[in-house]
Write a structure and sequence with these properties.
Layout (H helix, E strand, L loop, with lengths): L44 E2 L3 E3 L3 E7 L5 E11 L5 E6 L8 E8 L5 E4 L3 E4 L7 E4 L2 E6 L8 E4 L9 E3 L24 E6 L3 E5 L7 E3 L6 E8 L15 E9 L6 E7 L7 E2 L2
Antiparallel strand pairs: 1-6, 2-4, 3-4, 4-14, 4-15, 5-6, 5-13, 6-7, 8-9, 10-11, 10-16, 12-14, 12-19, 16-17, 17-18
């Protein structure tokens, strides 16, 4: 399991901006000449398929500050035939990162597409690099699209943490992406990802696995989670990235109470320990 003492970081109540079609955004065109050229563009790639598992461990609580939160566990899995690979490189320790998605090809060398992503070094003891991919969780009323609360994770360090209950036809025998692949504050190049049939859960005990719910009236709300909120990454199936759960919140009492009343579809089967 992920070391829950590695605390994540930053609460940003900012709206995510939808980006490119076809699962990838337009490549950034200006980089230091000292960076290596990107690999060839995809030809016949073996695609991953990011999917969000059902949200679990939903709980309500009060922080020492008095703020009320709903906490939950979320897990992104790879149901595809190909690995999900994020590659990042920079010219020096102060330089900007070039973040790419890389692909295994059917009959060609590894290919690559540059994304708008950035790398952020986590704080609060969560001391490794994360790819920052935008707002992942938000809260609405069940019959409304109005976003009442939004949370942008500091990012993800993807690695093969647990095996999915639902496995692809030919999963790897052993994990291929490790939890230490994101380490090294001074590193100039790194690669993280998810092998087919693996998931990367983020547990409810982490500070970035919660939504601030101060000021909301008692009632039923819908909590959403998205595996690729800005559509930066190319996948075999773009329709299973999103899941939701309806919650009955009682915030007028202390401690606050939350009850799961309905679950939406989830792309990935619930993860199980490998």
């Amino acid at each position: 399991m992920r070391d829950v003492s590695r605390r994540a970081a930053i609460l940003v109540l900012a709206a995510a901006v939808p980006l490119a079609a076809l699962g990838v955004a337009a490549a950034v065109t200006y980089w230091p000449s000292s960076l290596p050229e990107p690999l060839a563009a995809p030809n016949d790639p073996i695609l991953p398929d990011l999917a969000m598992s059902p949200l679990t461990d939903v709980a309500a609580g009060v922080a020492p500050s008095g703020n009320q939160y709903v906490a939950f566990t979320a897990s992104i899995g790879n149901l595809g035939s190909g690995p999900f690979i994020v590659h990042a490189v920079r010219a020096d320790e102060r330089g900007d990162w070039r973040v790419s998605q890389r692909f295994r090809e059917h009959d060609a060398p590894t290919s690559e597409v540059v994304t708008p992503g950035n790398m952020v070094f986590g704080g609060h003891g969560h001391d490794h690099w994360h790819v920052q991919i935008g707002a992942s969780y938000w809260l609405t009323r069940p019959a409304s699209s109005e976003v009442l609360r939004r949370y942008s994770k500091v990012g993800y360090c993807f690695f093969d943490q647990v095996r999915l209950a639902r496995q692809p036809a030919h999963p790897p025998i052993a994990p291929t992406f490790g939890k230490d692949d994101c380490d090294g504050r001074s590193t100039l190049e790194l690669e993280m990802g998810l092998s087919p049939g693996f998931a990367d859960p983020y547990f409810w005990t982490l500070p970035d696995q919660r939504l601030l719910v101060n000021g909301l009236a008692d009632g039923v709300y819908r909590l959403w989670a998205d595996a690729d909120p800005n559509d930066w990454f190319r996948e075999a199936n773009e329709a299973n990235n999103l899941t939701w759960v309806d919650l009955r919140l009682t915030l007028s009492q202390s401690p606050p109470k939350v009850e799961v009343v309905r679950r939406g579809p989830a792309g990935a089967s619930a993860w199980v320990a490998g």
